[in-house]
Design goal:
The chain is mainly alpha-helical. It has one domain. The protein has six helices and no strands. Helix 2 crosses helix 3. It is flat and about 40 Å long.
Length: 98
Amino acid sequence: MSINNWPKEDRPREKLLKNGEHTLSDSELLAIILRTGIKGASALDLARRVLQKFKGFRNMGQQDLAHWKELKDLGDAKITQIKAAIEIVGSLCRACRT
């Protein structure tokens, strides 16, 4: 079922706006970055698959493109969205250390 069909209080974007980003699970945060799902899987389903494969955010940034391509449900657009977000976080972390 599409996230758009869920009750508004259960949708990741609406939860973030109402309660703050700290109240969301890692899967919900990643689903917001993914924006949309694919046929038969919501953005939250895809986010869970990604996090399960890489065992969390920390390992995602260390994976090369070949490992990302193993996730058949993710196309180039979604992979680049995630990798761009990871790079932004990395840049912020590097800036904090200087």
